[in-house]
Structures are given as structure tokens and as C-alpha cells.
Amino acid sequence: MEPLAMNAALLIIDMQKGMGNPSLGRRNNPDAELHIQQLLNAWRRAQRPIIHVRHISRSPVSVFWPGQPGCEFQDALQPLAHEHVVEKNVPDAFIATGLERWLHTRSIKQLVIAGVITNNSVEATVRSGGNLGFDVIVAADACFTFDQTDLSGRLWPAEDVHALSLSNLAMDYARVLHTGEILTNS
């Protein structure tokens, strides 16, 4: 892998307190937050652009409904005052948020994406980023998901859902790397 661009942006998706809600079920990758913190610390040291994405639900019963603790960023991943915050109402962080314009205005062409949920907001955002022509890198071990029941009632372990989602993204939309590989080339 060639070195990252000096202005490569770190995009952290939906690392909100509500992701710890037991109603979401069993998750994979218990070290994801540690890897996200490693990326965040490296980006802060290098003074690279950082974007924190927060999901704001339109449903009053959601853990991400505004004003509830679940909607707030996790304590260890709080944005600093100068770091950009994007609020979204759908899984894709590019939809109706101004994110694409914000990136183009700053001539940012490369994105490193981490966060949750791998097969939902991460996948939707990565697909759009790739389709829009950004050089997207997904930090595989800095993402996680939850067990998922398919339409036939079969329960898929979070590990399988995560692996398949990352494989889908690696086909056409992004490079999928581990945090260590990204940090080595930053």
C-alpha cells in the first residue's frame, strides 16, 4: 500500500452511546473502539481532517432520538471543537448532509472509514464514497456489527455478517485493511 495522502480524512460513523444498547443484540469485534481510538489519535497527531458522523433518528422510539443519552457520542470518541460533525437521518452519511461538498471544498480525495454498523451505515457510506470517486479505505477491525436474522428467519452471526459486508465493499467500492496496515502507511 502506498502512503496515505496528507489530507486523507478519517470518517468515524455513528460511534454513539446507543450502540451499547442490549436491544441491538450480540456484536462482533469487541476491540473495535480501541482501533478507532488508535486511528483517531494518529489523525489528531498528524493534524489530518477528522469527521464524526452521528445518526439522528426520525423515530421517537429509537435509541438515536435527539435528546436521549444514546444519541450522544461515546465519551472516548468525543469530537474536539475543530473537528467536523455530520448529522444524518439515513444510513448513508453522504445523503442530505453536505459531506461531499465539505470534502471537495478541502480537496480531500481519500477517506479512511471506521465505525458502525458494518453492514448498514458503514456499507452505505462506503458504497456512496466509492461511487462518487473517492479513494475509500475501510478499517476492517475498527468496525463492528450485530447478529442478523435474514428474511427466512435464519440467524447469521455478527462475524459472518461483518465478513460478507466487507467482502462486498472490497469488490468495487473500497480497499479493506486493518488498523495496523493503515497506521503503518500514514
As a percent range, the share of helical residues equals: 25-40%
User: Shape, please?
Assistant: globular
The radius of gyration over CA amounts to 15 Å
Distance between the termini: 10 Å
Uncertain ranges = none
Strand content: 15-25%
Taking all residues together, what is the mean pLDDT?
Answer: 97
Q: Please count the beta strands (DSSP E, at least 2 residues each).
A: 8
**Count of domain modules:** 1
Spatial arrangement of strands, main beta sheet: 3-2-1-4-5-8
SSE series: EHEEHEHEEEHEH
CATH superfamily: Isochorismatase-like
> What does the largest sheet look like?
6 strands, parallel
Determine the oligomeric state from the structure.
single chain
So what's the CATH class?
Alpha Beta
Which fold name corresponds to the CATH topology?
A: Rossmann fold
What would you call the structural class? alpha/beta
Task: Identify the CATH architecture.
Answer: 3-Layer(aba) Sandwich
| Count, helices | 5
Summarize the structure.
The protein is built from five helices and eight strands. With 186 residues, it is of the alpha/beta class.
